Amino acid sequence: MKNLKTIALFLLIAIGLISLSSFNNMKNPSEPRFIEVTVSNYIILHGFDASNKEIEEYVKDQAPKKKLISVDRIQSVSEKYICTTYANNRLIFWEYKDGYENLKQKLGL
User: Fold this and answer.
1) What are the residues whose beta carbons fall under 8 Å from the beta carbon of 25, sequence distance 6 or more?
2) Is the pLDDT of residue 7 over 50?
């Protein structure tokens, strides 16, 4: 019986630790899940060929457009591009017009 109580106690502690870990990993609800960015041209990285050369598709838009981008999909940001994940393990490099410092502020950095 004592072993059963010890096991039950360990299970309760483990469940509490898992719950605490999940709580600590939750995002702050006040953080934006999406940011609005003005984008124009973009590059889709489809993958690599047999020679390990990138397979890219360049898309030129006529006019800049406002777009909501999921913060969770952003992989990196440079002064010219926002790299985001895309369907089927592809990446998109969005050319953006909002300015690097403005974008950092939108991301809370």
Assistant:
1) none
2) yes
Q: Show the tokens assigned to 83.
A: 């790299």
**Closest to 85 (Cα-Cα) out of 77, 73, 76, 96:** 73
Quote the Cα angle for 12-16-20, to 5°: 175
64, 82, 108 from 103: Cα distances, Å: 16, 10, 9
Mean pLDDT of the chain: 80
Whether the predicted model's global pTM rises above the 0.85 cut? no
pLDDT tens-place string over residues 79-89: 999 999 998 88
Give the position of tokens 């509490």: 16
For the chain, give every domain's residue range: 34-106
